[in-house]
């Protein structure tokens, strides 16, 4: 590397990537140590005979590339705990690897407090100069691995509690049988997770808001139905109640007091004003309460379809609003790998024509 190239990259440090045919070399070094650099190669061989060599050069001794990656992971997430949750690596391992990196460099990179973590000036400089090249290396390796025909590795999926309860146990079992080389983890949660910050390959969202950071596909649409215990009589439209007929109901907590259900049934349209008998935070609890005769409720078809078919619940009508859309999303910064594609294929097979089919 010439002095001009070094100057263009900065007076006190530089990083360069050189491409020679199928050979790629990354070098990290400090300009003031150039008279006696040391080289430590890391080589990866792929099926197409391409050789990727990652060479770390500096004057004090070998720098562990994995330790450097762990340090950047901790720095990017702002703490060992967050980095551990995002990567699946043990918090103690990350702490030990960063400590070993600090020892090998002879400088402190992170100030560790009881409640917070802060990068030192040296840590901030190292993170800024190496996080980009390390990301390039990871993406290059991932791009090569994506060409593999067999899905493998760890796959983390976040799904809403209701959908996980109704469908994703069986979906997970089918996937595990079909792709034993993938370690699948499905987390049932209703909080709005960040796939990058929380370390998920896929997140399942209901009626997601547009977000340029996320891409994916819709695999299911569902309708909301008003259902009740068969003993509860369905009201009829009345000219005396143009704003809606009051009915005993089980509602989500919180539900605005002026809520109105506008439902369609065949050629009939009806306005209902739910009179809350119970306020519950879970649709599973709501379904059970309706089965016990506590009142009518507005619930997803995928949750109550089999109860209607079996006569345990009476169908009053379908919500007049557009159907609910359910999407599988991932970060737009990540490539769609073989394991993700395989999982999405299994999900779509479980919902033919994007409609929920209850298990036999």
From TrEMBL:
Keywords: DNA-binding, Transcription, Transcription regulation. It comes from the Bacteria. InterPro entries: LysR-type_TF_proteobact-type (IPR058163), LysR_HTH_N (IPR000847), LysR_subst-bd (IPR005119), WH-like_DNA-bd_sf (IPR036388), WH_DNA-bd_sf (IPR036390). The keyword Acyltransferase does not apply. Residues 63-120 form the HTH lysR-type domain. Pfam families: HTH_1, LysR_substrate. The keyword Amino-acid biosynthesis does not apply. GO terms for molecular function: DNA binding; DNA-binding transcription factor activity. PANTHER family: HTH-TYPE TRANSCRIPTIONAL ACTIVATOR TTDR-RELATED (PTHR30537:SF5), HTH-TYPE TRANSCRIPTIONAL REGULATOR (PTHR30537). Belongs to the LysR transcriptional regulatory family. NodD regulates the expression of the nodABCFE genes which encode other nodulation proteins. NodD is also a negative regulator of its own expression. Binds flavonoids as inducers. This is DNA-binding transcriptional LysR family regulator. It comes from Bradyrhizobium elkanii.
């Amino acid at each position: 590397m010439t002095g001009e190239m070094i100057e263009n990259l900065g007076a006190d440090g530089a990083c360069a990537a050189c491409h020679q045919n199928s050979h790629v070399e990354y070098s990290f070094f400090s300009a003031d140590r150039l008279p006696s650099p040391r080289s430590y190669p890391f080589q990866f061989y792929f099926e197409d005979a391409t050789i990727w060599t990652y060479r770390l050069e500096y004057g004090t001794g070998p720098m562990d590339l994995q330790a450097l990656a762990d340090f950047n992971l901790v720095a990017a997430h702002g703490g060992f705990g967050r980095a551990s949750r995002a990567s699946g690596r043990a918090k103690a391992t990350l702490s030990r690897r960063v400590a070993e990196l600090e020892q090998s460099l002879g400088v402190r990179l992170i100030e560790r407090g009881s409640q917070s973590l802060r990068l030192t000036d040296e840590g901030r400089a190292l993170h800024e100069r190496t996080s980009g090249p390390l990301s390039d290396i990871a993406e290059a390796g991932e791009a090569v691995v994506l060409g593999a025909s067999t899905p493998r590795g760890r796959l983390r999926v976040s799904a809403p509690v209701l959908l996980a309860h109704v469908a994703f146990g069986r979906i997970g079992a089918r996937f595990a049988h079909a792709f034993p080389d993938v370690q699948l983890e499905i987390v049932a949660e209703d909080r709005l997770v960040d796939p990058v910050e929380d370390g998920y390959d896929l997140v399942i969202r209901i009626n997601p808001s547009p977000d340029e950071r996320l891409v994916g596909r819709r695999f299911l649409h569902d309708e909301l139905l008003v259902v009740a215990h068969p003993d509860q009589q369905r009201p009829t439209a009345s000219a005396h109640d143009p704003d809606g007929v009051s009915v005993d109901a089980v509602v989500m907590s919180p539900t605005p007091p002026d809520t109105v259900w506008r439902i369609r049934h065949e050629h009939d349209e009806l306005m209902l004003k739910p009179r809350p008998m119970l306020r519950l935070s879970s649709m599973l609890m709501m379904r059970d309460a309706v089965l016990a005769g506590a009142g009518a409720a507005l619930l997803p078809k995928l949750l109550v379809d089999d109860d209607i078919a079996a006569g345990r619940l009476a169908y009053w009508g379908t919500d007049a609003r557009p159907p609910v859309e359910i999407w599988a999303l991932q970060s737009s910064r990540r490539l769609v790998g073989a394991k993700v594609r395989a999982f999405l294929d299994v999900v779509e097979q479980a919902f033919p024509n994007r409609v929920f089919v209850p298990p036999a």
